[in-house]
Amino acid sequence: MSKNINYAFPEQNKEEFIKLLKAQRYYYKVAKRWQNWRLILSMVIPILFILAKLKSLNEFESYKNMFNWLDLSFIVILSLIWIAISFIFRILEKQYISLGASTQEEFDTKLFKLDKNTFCFLKEPTIEEINKGAKKFKGDLKKLKDWYPIGDSGNKFLNILLAQRTNIVWDRRLKERYRNFLIVLIIVIFISEVFIAFHFNPSFKEAVSILFLSSFPLYFLLIEYAYELHRQIKSNNIVDNQILDICKSINKFSNIELRFKCRQIQDYIYEKNRLKLILIPEWLYWLRRDEDNNDILEINNELVKNLKKV
């Protein structure tokens, strides 16, 4: 990030705002742990099936005692039980997503000086929750600086709109990468299972009822995520274009109208991009953060220059 840029929101680097970002990142990270457990355990069940199948073919004769507990019927039952347990993990995941979302909404409304929509923002984070999350944050503080890399346009509402657009564009890019990753993962898992099925030459009924049934929780989870990501990407594209239209005709609106539009966009971000958040793995979340921010900053600056020419 360039140090020569006059940022629109210099106060975002003050301690009170950094504390909110630290709490937000911590609660999202805890939510990701529950998501990771769902993914890991959903992957373990198909692996256990493979081991059970190899055992039934006497491939583990030398380790017979070690794998006595493995049984194909047990794996099928375990996969059905796991479907129910995964819903409990999902509930815990959503609880921490809600905490992260409400903390991030607190950051935005304070920074943008927007009124809170009490109809959708039903629970504000408590001081205790913010302090707890901030204290438990173990990440890189430098990555929290200049959270919204927006150059000052000279117009308060244009700055807010550009910051909101930055949020939506960055969110969309992350979701596109994660969606593509999940699609590739689903294909790889499916091809691997087809290969295993042909290798062991089970009957069609056996392959469907045991191999693919044992993988159902994993397929359900991955397809659910990929579909929801795709749906949110399309929605973000629509809102992004709407924000650009407002920016291009910003002089036609009164301050009251612009404040109302900013609040509407903020409602969308909170409800659609945060409460219904599909968590992005940490390695992917930070992978191209600086490159994306620099790219978005250049686009926003170019947009501001073009608007000033009008």
Overall structural class, as computed from helix and strand content, comes to mainly alpha
- Calculate the mean pLDDT score and round it: 84
- Can you summarize the main beta sheet? none
> What is Rg?
24 Å
Report the portion of residues in β strands. Answer: under 5%
N- to C-terminal distance: 28 Å
Q: In one word, what is the shape?
A: elongated
Number of helices: 9
Low-confidence stretches: none
Could you spell the SSE succession in H and E letters? HHHHHHHHH
Please provide a written account of the structure:
The protein is mainly α and 310 residues long. The chain has one domain. The chain starts with 14 loop residues before the first helix and ends with a helix. The mean pLDDT is 84.
Short descriptors:
310 residues; mainly alpha; 9 helices; 0% strand
Topology record:
Elements: H1 15-56, H2 72-112, H3 127-136, H4 156-200, H5 204-214, H6 216-248, H7 255-275, H8 282-285, H9 289-309
Helix pairs in contact: 1-2, 1-3, 1-5, 1-6, 2-5, 2-7, 4-6, 4-7, 4-9
Summarize this structure briefly.
This protein is mostly helical. It contains nine helices and no strands.
